[in-house]
Input
Amino acid sequence: QVQLVESGGGVVQAGGSLRLSCAASGNIFSIKAMGWYRQAPGNQRELVAAISHGSTDYADSVKGRFTVSRDYAKNTVYLEMNSLKPEDTAVYYCNVDYWNSGGYYSEVAWGQGTQVTVSS
Output
């Protein structure tokens, strides 16, 4: 069983910054990718940013403002958010796509979510 623990959410004014962290632990053989999704009230959950061993991927709405990174030794992913806008207000969820211990099958796990609120 794999668990993801998120931290770093909060309330900031427009133009401010926040840094989210997510640490994965459990029966992980190796991680294929980690990422961040967000869901605002009444909206669908959407991909914000993701990172694999060789590349990163960002939603068009956050390119140039957000940066995703990983600490491979600690199975941790970060999301640095700069120049925040009210439209960024949402619950942010960490996601990990990984190989189970032994490398026999892949699985996906989700964090509990952390609230990010950006005031105008």
Q: What stands out?
A: DSSP finds no helices and eleven strands in the chain. The longest strand covers residues 28-39. The chain has a mean pLDDT of 96.
